[in-house]
Amino acid sequence: MDPLSEICASLHVQDAMYTRVEATAPWGLTAPGQRGVKFVLLVRGSCILTMPTFDAPVALRGGDVFITLDDSPYEIYDEPSSVLLDCAEVMASMVDNTIVIGGKGAPSTFISGMFRLDTAYAAPLLSVLPSFLWLPAGEERSGAFEAILGMLARETSRRSIGFESMIGRLFEILFIHAVRAYCEQQQSQATGWLAVVADPNLGHAARAMHDNLGKDWTLEALASIAGMSRTAFAARFKEKAGKTALDYLTYWRMYKAAKLIQQGSRSLAQIATDVGYQSEAAFNRMFAREIGITPGRFRKASAPAA
Fold first, then answer.
1. Does the pTM exceed 0.85?
2. Rounded distance, CA 177 to CA 119, Å?
3. Confidence of residue 177 (pLDDT cuts 50, 70, 90)
4. CA-closest candidate to residue 135, choices 71, 44, 41, 57
5. Domains in the chain, ordered, with CATH?
6. What are the residues whose beta carbons fall under 8 Å from the beta carbon of 102, sequence distance 6 or more?
């Protein structure tokens, strides 16, 4: 399993919320910064998006999606002259998760959603993604991605039986598709493990490591799988990942160990063996170095409250 698939398999949306906004010009909203993953799907119409980190406003059209991963505030409006309403205030007028704002001009519809991800599982992914993702509508997006957006638009408008559960699942799939689309768009500029997995040669070695984290990997064996010389492999891997291949292996071993500890079904000695350490003491030292806490303390901190 490649690392993106492994991470996404562990992602679970928590505290999902959504709002469908039916806006008619003139209209404008200001959204405060909040922790979590926020996204906006513009179903129809057009609008302008601004954020403090932008050099210039971004014009959005129907089918565009943007996602923010930090707590930056943003403003969204039909025209720069439109009065901006505070999102917290207009929430009071929400009926069945739908807000109606604006005057009597051109209509726009968008879905605003927010959810949290388990940081322990999502950290490797969030560490290599920018805080803002803009996925404009167009032919470059996959049919599957468009289908998810269409389902999300329908579920938020019909509120059929089981719609809340369906929307939560769609949030997860939307996020995964957004990450995939970003990887495809930025393949040549990507850095970190995303760049390694996307590389036609390094990707073979990375997948081999992820398929068997407990194996006693050597630089020579990994270079052979990648079809490269040892020297060329080592240099290219560090250039793409920002760390050596064996440091990369250690990082993912500790990530896997943390997941196994949280699941609570195996002893620390068994987990140490699973991720390639014959000595539990050596595993404990490496885990403390990478995670910042010993495995035993990590297990206690991860245990559910009685």
1. no
2. 19
3. confident
4. 41
5. 3-185 (2.60.120.280), 193-302 (1.10.10.60)
6. 23, 24, 25, 26, 27, 78
